[in-house]
Amino acid sequence: MFISRVRVRRDIRNVSNLHHILRGNGYGAHQMLWDLFPGEQKRAFLFREEIAKEQLPHHRGAKGEPVYYLVSRDVPSKDYPLLSVESKPYTPRLVAGDRLAFRLRANPTIARKVEGKKNSVRHDVVMDAQRNLLHDLAKKIGIPVSGEKSTLKRAIFSAWVQTGSVSIADDLRGVLEENERHREAVEKKLVPTSLLDFALKACADKALEVWLEEKGKGNGFVLVRDDQKDRLKFQAEGYQWHALPKKGKTAGFSSVDFEGEIEVIEPERFAEALFSGIGPAKGFGCGLMLVRRV
User: Fold this and answer.
1) Which residue has the higher pLDDT, 148 or 273?
2) What pLDDT is attached to residue 125?
3) 54, 164, 182, 284 - which has most CB atoms within 10 Å?
4) Distance between CA 88 and CA 102 in Å, rounded?
5) Residue 181 and residue 223: Cα distance in Å, rounded?
6) What is the pTM of this model?
7) pLDDT at position 74, please?
């Protein structure tokens, strides 16, 4: 395998807007990066987009343009006229018990069977968790379980304030208690709006933790626990929705940036995951796990 850093060539950046067009355009970047592997009919690489000035602070001229990290089976071509490519062999030497810091941009989804449909339907993990919490609250408070997330959230808050329901507040504090990274918020004197927002964040965070733990079971790793703080060395931030208008008005995918610490359990399976990626939407810049020893 090879790991590569790819940038739009400096002379091209100076005379065109290509780097501005590519920024945040996962599909366009994927098509362009594929050109680095002439003759390949099937995608054999993963990539991740970053911002040059954050990744290369000491490089002259590095600004807000994208920089791409690739992991591939073959070395990418350096003859592509638009891109500057730096590559080196990537052969991680792993043994069971290795501790690694990781970064992963992934598209967390969950598949569920739907009555009347042959195939399972994929749901966004964050939206699914928050929607389920709002539905449970709506049923408990006695209002219709319908509408968009923002509409339902307003309706729950309005009914909650009118009824002065103590049990709703208790339920939301229970959600915070269940998440070790949000438990301290229980001690804060939160107004109802903040309590609901914190609980929605906590339930989404927990769902993402469960999703990544499940992915670890199939890919030879586990999340590491910080015994001093009594919590997992894990965080999930940067939730984004990426619209794909060419595929339809509502088409798109979400991405979340995970980081933390893992322990390798099955070295061969984990090494394969470093190449094959984790989760869907790999063609849009998701799935590549970057690791370093700690």
Assistant:
1) 273
2) 96
3) 284
4) 19
5) 14
6) 0.88
7) 92
